């Protein structure tokens, strides 16, 4: 057997043959490692989870056409399907994304003008989890009515509604004046796109209805599939499927707005990259209301977690230090004997530091596993989803536990190396 | 005759207390010396100074002609591990190491670990079959024999034993004294600190301390005495001016009950 072999034989004997003492040190490290790893996992998981939760409250990025009027025909052109796909690919390249497209038209109900949006119900539902829909989402021949409109007209789920389309209501002269304002408004929040489209007729609105009425009640009959209540401007719009809007207007064209819930880490860079592509003829803008509040809440939570982590780290140091100190004081005679046998102070120091590191490693390994279990349980309980094990964080947690154990053992081991064998071994 | 150990007017003083008071003593290689005295007489303090675990307040200690007061802590540790084997009354075995591992600990701090050699040392003290037992699984006598095997493993020039039979029954006391006798016959220098007159009587030479002062010296082996004196060895002495102190060139004898029947000597 080599001296290195003997070193580890002594080490393993100290750890595994003195199980009750070793257990105290391991448990102290375990508790610290478990708490720290759990907090760190949550610190990493929370922004991700919060981001996803916040993104359920609507878009954080909107894309509108730079010019809403076809230069040749003078009619609205919108963003065609190919450009929607291309833009979506650009957003998806920077992270996860959910999107919904909107085609806005001015329509008439009982001769009064309203705004109708052609949508893909599945997309809109997926993007706006906060929408409260009484009834069902729009489908062929069935529309979703905003709460304000339903109240104004006295509609209920299952009611019939006749919607008329007048090409003159959607002429370029009435809409072009508000093109610039549509994108400017959008930076205030998700409602910006709908606000802009509601005002696209160039006239003031009340309860979702344009103030000038023309006594013409002809149109296509739809059934009210549901009533949407968001508390926002969405409550003043009639939502129908794209196919129904195409059929109603007799025109198939591109969309007026694409709303994105983008998971890109740097939304500003994404906006810039889209806007730099002038050939796309689209303009991207952040919905600052969503992104700012998201960032603020995450920062607050992370700060809180890091402060708690720091407190736990200090408590772990104290706990492990006290335990190691107790172990060292119980082994005074052994230390005295080793010195009497010729051990140098540094040799004794190394033995105890490595032993402490071993307690830290064992405690760290078990603690990290326990911490992951706790973090997993918390995430399932709070966020209703599981989190994957972060191996880098796991390795860091185990190494930190070992380091903390060694640092905590410095004062007691330093005292141990100064033990006078003559005093310890004195028999008189 | 070469002197292995030379104490030159050494004192250990704690405040007003003189634990060892101005003692001069020479011990040649191969001698078996017993330091006797009642509790508190300064025996262990003297042993600690000889064993490089304590330093005298005054005077000089020489081991193989090397002055210990000139050495730093690291050098003293080297002297301790290379020249001295320690045997304690309370054994001081590492509780979580087996008997053979306890012997190997001394090898570890001395030079190179050799398990076979450690087992041979245990065999020498009659404990080969108990080599892989923990101290808690051994009797007091067996633990002391492990302690002796540990002291012997590095072939020290000097064995220092502090009350080696203090915690043993008669049977184990005899085994331990027989082991010392064997070591002495092999030429190992042995200094035993004891308050047991029987154990002391096994040594060639005895000195007695009382409150740190040398008060007597006697020889149990005349041939050894003659050889010592022929080689220029002188009786131990003290400079302490206390009644009954052995301060001159003449040894003052003292009486203790012999227990030859018990020791077999």
Structure description:
Chain A: Pfam families: FtsX. Chain A: Belongs to the ABC-4 integral membrane protein family. Chain A: It comes from Bifidobacterium amazonense. The complex is a heterodimer of chains A (428) and B (265). Chain A has two domains: 3-53 and 296-424, no CATH class; 59-286, no CATH class. Chain A is built from 15 helices and twelve strands. Chain A has helices at residues 3-16, 19-55, 81-93, 121-127, 147-153, 172-176, 179-186, 192-198, 242-249, 267-276, 288-330, 332-340, 345-383, 391-417, 421-424; strands spanning 61-65, 97-109, 112-119, 132-135, 142-146, 160-165, 205-206, 209-210, 220-229, 237-241, 257-262, 282-286. In chain A, the strands form two sheets. In chain A, strands 2-3-10-5-9-6 form a six-stranded mixed beta barrel, surrounded by five helices. In chain A, strands 7-8 form a two-stranded antiparallel sheet. The two termini of chain A are 38 Å apart. In chain A, 41% of the residues are buried. With 265 residues, chain B is α/β, with parallel strands linked by helices. Chain B has helices spanning 43-50, 73-83, 99-110, 115-124, 140-152, 170-185, 197-201, 222-230, 260-263; strands at residues 3-14, 17-28, 32-36, 58-63, 66-67, 84-87, 158-162, 189-194, 205-210, 213-219, 237-238. In chain B, helix 3 (99-110) packs parallel to helix 5 and helix 5 runs parallel beside helix 6 (170-185). Chain B has one domain (3-263): P-loop containing nucleotide triphosphate hydrolases (Rossmann fold, 3-Layer(aba) Sandwich), CATH 3.40.50.300. The longest helix of chain B is centred in the C-terminal third of the chain and has 16 residues, at 170-185. Chain B is globular. Classes of the chains: A alpha+beta (428), B alpha/beta (265). Chains A and B meet through helix 1 and helix 12 of A and helix 1, helix 2 and helix 3 of B.
């Amino acid at each position: 057997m080599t001296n290195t072999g003997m070193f580890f034989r002594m080490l393993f004997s100290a750890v595994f043959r003195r199980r009750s003492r070793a257990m105290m040190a391991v448990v102290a490290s375990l508790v610290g490692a478990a708490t720290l790893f759990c907090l760190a996992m949550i610190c990493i998981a929370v922004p991700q989870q919060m981001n996803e939760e916040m993104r359920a409250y609507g878009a954080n990025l909107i894309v509108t056409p730079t010019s809403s009027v076809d230069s040749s025909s003078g009619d609205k052109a919108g963003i065609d399907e190919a450009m929607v796909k291309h833009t979506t690919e650009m957003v998806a390249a920077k992270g996860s994304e959910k999107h919904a497209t909107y085609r806005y038209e001015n329509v008439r109900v009982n001769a009064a003008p309203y705004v109708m949006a052609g949508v893909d119900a599945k997309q809109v539902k997926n993007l706006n989890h906060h929408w409260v829909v009484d009834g069902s989402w729009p489908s062929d021949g069935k529309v979703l009515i905003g709460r304000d409109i339903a109240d104004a007209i006295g509609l209920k789920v299952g009611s019939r509604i006749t919607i008329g389309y007048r090409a003159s209501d959607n002429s370029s002269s009435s809409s072009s004046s508000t093109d610039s304002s549509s994108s400017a408004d959008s930076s205030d929040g998700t409602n910006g796109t709908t606000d802009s489209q509601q005002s696209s007729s160039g006239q003031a609105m009340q309860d979702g209805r344009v103030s000038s009425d023309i006594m013409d009640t002809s149109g296509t009959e739809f059934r009210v599939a549901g009533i949407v209540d968001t508390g926002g401007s969405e409550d003043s719009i009639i939502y129908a499927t794209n196919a129904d809007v195409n059929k109603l207007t007799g025109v198939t064209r591109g969309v007026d707005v694409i709303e994105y819930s983008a998971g890109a880490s740097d939304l500003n860079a994404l906006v810039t990259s889209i806007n730099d592509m002038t050939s796309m003829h689209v303009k991207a803008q952040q919905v600052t209301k969503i992104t700012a509040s998201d960032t603020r809440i995450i920062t607050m939570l992370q700060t809180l977690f890091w402060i708690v982590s720091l407190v736990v780290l200090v408590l772990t140091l104290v706990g492990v230090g006290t335990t190691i100190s107790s172990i060292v004081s119980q082994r005074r005679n052994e230390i005295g004997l080793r010195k009497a046998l010729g051990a140098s102070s540094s040799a004794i120091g190394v033995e105890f530091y490595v032993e402490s590191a071993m307690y830290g490693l064992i405690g760290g390994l078990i603690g990290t596993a326990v911490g992951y279990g706790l973090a997993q349980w918390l995430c399932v309980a709070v966020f209703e989803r599981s989190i994957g094990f972060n191996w880098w964080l796991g390795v860091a947690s185990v190494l930190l536990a070992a380091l903390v154990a060694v640092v905590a053992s410095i004062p007691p081991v330093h005292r141990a190396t100064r033990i006078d064998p003559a005093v310890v071994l004195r028999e008189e | 005759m070469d002197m292995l150990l030379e104490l030159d007017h050494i004192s250990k003083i704690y405040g007003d207390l003189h634990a060892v008071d101005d003692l001069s003593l020479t011990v040649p290689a191969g001698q078996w010396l017993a330091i006797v005295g009642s509790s508190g007489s300064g025996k262990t303090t003297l042993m600690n100074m000889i064993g490089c675990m304590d330093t005298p307040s005054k005077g000089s200690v020489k081991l193989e002609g090397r002055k210990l007061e000139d050495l730093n802590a690291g050098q003293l540790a080297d002297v301790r591990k290379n020249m001295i084997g320690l045997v304690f009354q309370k054994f001081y075995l590492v509780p979580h190491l087996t008997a053979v591992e306890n012997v190997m600990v001394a090898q570890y701090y001395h030079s190179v670990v050799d398990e076979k050699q450690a087992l041979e040392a245990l065999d020498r003290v009659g404990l080969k079959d108990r080599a892989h037992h923990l101290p808690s699984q051994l009797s007091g006598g067996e633990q002391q024999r492990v302690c002796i095997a540990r002291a012997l493993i590095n072939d020290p020039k000097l064995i220092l034993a502090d009350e080696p039979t203090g915690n043993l029954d008669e049977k184990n006391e005899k085994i331990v004294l027989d082991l010392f006798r064997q070591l002495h016959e092999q030429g190992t220098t042995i200094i035993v600190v004891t308050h047991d007159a029987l154990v002391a009587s096994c040594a060639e030479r005895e000195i007695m301390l009382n409150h740190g002062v040398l008060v007597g010296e006697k020889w149990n082996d005349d041939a050894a005495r003659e050889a010592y004196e022929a080689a220029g060895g002188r009786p131990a002495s003290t400079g302490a001016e206390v009644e009954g102190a052995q301060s001159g060139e003449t040894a003052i004898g003292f009486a203790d009950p012999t227990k030859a029947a018990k020791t077999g000597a």
